[in-house]
Amino acid sequence: MSRLNRLSAAAIKAMFSSETDEQLIMLVEIIDPTVSTVTQTISSTNQIAITNINYYNIDDNLIFTNSIGGLTAARTYYIVDIDYLSGKIKVSTTPRGIIATLTDSSTQNTFKRVFRISDNWKERLSYTTDEEVIYGVKSTKSGFERQFIFIPIEVELPQETDSGETSCRLTINYVTQELIDLIRSSLTRPADVAIELVLSSSTNTIEAEFSNFFISNVTYNANQITFELNMIPLSREPFPAYNFTPLYFPGLF
33: which residues sit within 8 A by CB, 6+ positions away? Predict the structure, then answer.
């Protein structure tokens, strides 16, 4: 694959050679297709009034569209407090960390929830306790740290075919009722998926990236959950989209 041709020598050695301690780690980012809205940010309580409050839980990862009310666009925020009755949340820039300081704003903002998982781990994530031990990978992108939780997954990377259509498969070998409920409630529309390859010694350097994939199908049984990932088949899009009529192309007549 052409994107793999850009791998560093260390990454290629980690992929094909057993004579190295380096490991190539896959980071998977799934963007929840549900878009919710911030209706107000309140400085006195550092609360955010949002829509779809019952859809969210403590520790959910959120990404806001615009920098409004003390929130920074594209940065990951973590829900640390939820008031379901008033429809308000509090967030932090780190998992279970200090509540973010906000400013008053009534300008609407949108946000999405993001899920991050990896096929290997490098360290114990800092916010976990002895009763809840979670391992994963920390990776910085665009100046913001992201945390990927390790669960047993297999990723079949996309192949470049003569037809030009690209697809891949993500299999999670860890099935819980919570995951099944999450799939049923969240994947009502195709979710955006990105896959990154990093070295265990330099998780902030992306060796290869496969983005613009969407979950087209999900199957599961007692042992595993399988996601079919596809790109939008632009070759099937009608072109031109309009007929050459005076209404759409007056300059031709």
Answer: 112, 186, 187, 188, 189, 190, 191, 192
Binned at pLDDT 50, 70 and 90, residue 176 comes out as confident
Give me the residues paired with residue 150 across strands: 118
pLDDT of residue 211: 86
User: 240: cis peptide before it, omega within 30°?
Assistant: yes
Q: Is the pLDDT confidence value at 150 over 60?
A: yes
Task: Tell whether the model's pLDDT for residue 130 goes beyond 90.
Answer: no
Under 8 Å CB-to-CB from 94, ≥6 apart: which residues?
Answer: 78, 126, 127, 145
Residue spans per domain, the chain: 2-32+151-232, 36-114
Tokens of 96: 């279970």
How many CA atoms within 13 Å lie on the side-chain side of 145? Answer: 11
Q: For the residues of 164-233, what is the DSSP string, one character each?
A: ---EEEEEE----HHHHHHHHHHTTSPPEEEEEEEETTEEEEEEEEEEEEEEEEEEE-SS-EEEEEE---
Residues 18-58: tens digit of each pLDDT: 666 778 899 999 999 889 999 999 999 999 999 999 999 99
DSSP class of residue 14 equals H
